[in-house]
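4.2 Preliminary Data

To establish feasibility before requesting continued support, the project team ran the inverse folding procedure on a target of 171 residues. The structure was first converted into the token representation described in Section 3, and no sequence information of any kind was made available to the design step. The complete token record follows.
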């Protein structure tokens, strides 16, 4: 099964910025990428200034937008979509924004030091923030304040995952 990482957090916590950094790194290292966006606002896909548009611009091989009524790769759905059905071995990496309740590994993006809303979640890889001052106050929060820091974190994560060592060359 492909490596799957969910990036979750509150609005403007750095989820999309982090995903775009990972996509760029993956693209530069020939890691095929499928990026999935959960949209609770029933927006359109791949419009200028949207997350899905930025995912495409960053180089994701496939981008999906899922809301209450559609899977965009424009396939109508009649019930709540199970994101797990999209995970397959065609891609090396799946990056999912949102879908807090699934069992995949998670990076939780923070805007403040409050980790309490996430305490009952399983499979947390790390807490991270785009705010380096926050990371200085709590060294258990990964510093994602720059593109290079996000990509270095991803490189280390990818390289240390035994499953990935079989799939790609080392960096």
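Position-by-position output of the design step:
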């Amino acid at each position: 099964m492909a490596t799957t990482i969910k990036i979750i957090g509150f609005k403007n916590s750095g989820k999309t910025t982090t995903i775009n950094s990972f996509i760029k790194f993956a693209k530069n290292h020939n890691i095929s990428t499928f990026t999935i966006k959960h949209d609770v606002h029933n927006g359109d896909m791949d419009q200028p200034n949207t997350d899905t548009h930025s995912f495409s611009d960053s180089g994701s091989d496939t981008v999906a937008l899922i809301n209450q009524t559609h899977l965009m790769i424009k396939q109508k759905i009649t019930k709540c979509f199970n994101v797990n059905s999209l995970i397959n071995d065609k891609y090396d990496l799946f990056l999912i924004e949102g879908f807090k309740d699934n069992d995949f590994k998670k990076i939780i993006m923070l805007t403040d030091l409050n980790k309490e809303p996430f305490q009952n979640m399983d499979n947390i890889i790390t807490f991270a923030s785009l705010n380096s001052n926050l990371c200085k106050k709590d060294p258990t929060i990964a510093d994602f304040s720059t593109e290079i820091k996000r990509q270095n974190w991803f490189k280390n994560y990818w390289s240390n995952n035994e499953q990935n060592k079989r799939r790609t060359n080392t960096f």
